[in-house]
Amino acid sequence: MNGELAIVSVTFASVAAALGAVGFLLRDLFAPAIDAVRQRLEFAPSEPEGDFDKAFFRLLNESGAEFDMATATAMILGAAVVGAAVPVVLFDSLLWGATGAVIGASLPVAYLLVTRFFRIRDMRIRLPNALQAVADAVRSGQSLSEACDLVSQEIKGPLGREFAYAHSQLELGHSPLSVMNRMVQRVPLPEFRIFATAVVVHRRAGGNLSLLTERMSRAAYDKQEVRNHLLAVTAGSRLSAIGMVVGAAVALLILGWIEPDYLESFLKTPKGNWLLATAIGLQIAGGIWVWRILRITA
After folding, report:
1. Is the pLDDT of residue 11 over 90?
2. What is the model's pLDDT at position 87?
3. pTM score, two decimals?
4. How many helices (H) and strands (E) does the chain have?
5. Cβ neighbourhood burial of 123 (10 Å; 0-12, 13-18, 19+)
6. Where does the chain show beta strands of DSSP type E?
7. Nearest to 296 by CA among 241, 243, 226, 248
8. Alpha-carbon distance 109 to 105, whole Å?
9. What is the pLDDT of residues 102-128, one digit of tens each?
10. Which of 157, 185, 200, 276 is within CB 3.0–4.6 Å of 61 for a Cys-Cys bond?
């Protein structure tokens, strides 16, 4: 039995590797030609073409990932192969294998989404203090590189690391335009985008950068206060929606544990599966609806 499992595992891995190699070969043969000239500012890549590629590119940048799209795609494909191989080897079922492939491919994407959510929330909280520190540094006569170094020392978390990286790139001689372009990709906040634009305009045409940065700091602080107020006001509604969804699932589990025969007889009826699927679909649709109503996009 162990020998058969080993043969199945090796065969599956070989076929998956061969399919991956063929896919990369076709990509290299038919993909659009890429300019072979090395970009001077390769640390700030441009967005790819296509809505899906753009969304995935933004997800990687906004989640703070240090790898490129090719590496991320390879990780997702590898997770899908592993997720498909385990059920096939253990249960010898293609259906479970397909389910495992979907789950395996979804796990890296879910990790990036969760990481992006907490990263943006942390940067939104720290942004007013960071902009105020930049304004104070510029007003005292320090350069943009020195201001970024000061912010990286005072501000912790992902925002401080982004300013530290910007300081290192400015010290290497990269232009503020390219550095700000990269930071805008990785700090997707409207206030920071305006700040980056102000830096570029100041480098080209001059102006009072410290005053504008201080105003952006106040605007970011006021916006954070409004956001916190809205979160507090809508907390009851959000908890009610979560309670209805989670309560229905918990009630179903308790019913299946206390009265398994009742639930089994219900599912065996001709309309039982359809009714259960409809209830689950309505729960999902209602949850998405409430989430979109209570979502704070500002």
Report:
1. no
2. 79
3. 0.70
4. 12, 0
5. buried
6. none
7. 226
8. 7
9. 888 889 999 999 999 999 989 999 999
10. 185
Distance CA 65, CA 74 (A): 14
Q: In the block, which residue shows the tokens 């979160």?
A: 231
Which amino acid is present at 248? A
Residue 96 and residue 19 in contact, taking contact as beta carbons nearer than 8 Å: no
* DSSP one-letter string for 199-222: HHHHHHH---HHHHHHHHHHHHHH
For residue 13, which of 107, 89, 71 has the smallest C-alpha distance? 89
Relative orientation angle of helices 51-62 and 176-186, to the nearest 10 degrees: 90
Amino acid of residue 188: P
Residue 49 CB coordination number (10 Å): 8
Query: Angle at which helices 209-233 and 190-205 pack, to 10 degrees?
Result: 170
Structure tokens, 121: 């929330």
Considering just the CA atoms, what is the radius of gyration of the chain in Å?
A: 26
Q: Which two tokens stand for residue 89?
A: 């080897």
Write the DSSP symbol of residue 60: H
The 10 Å Cβ neighbour count of residue 116 is 19
- CB atoms near residue 162 (< 10 Å): 22
| C-alpha separations of 3 from 10, 15, 17, 89 in Å | 11, 18, 21, 12
Q: State CA 271 to chain mean position distance.
A: 39
Token code pair at residue 119: 């990263």
What six digits make up the tokens of 220? Answer: 């970011």
| Residues 249/252/257/259 CA torsion (nearest 10 deg) | 170
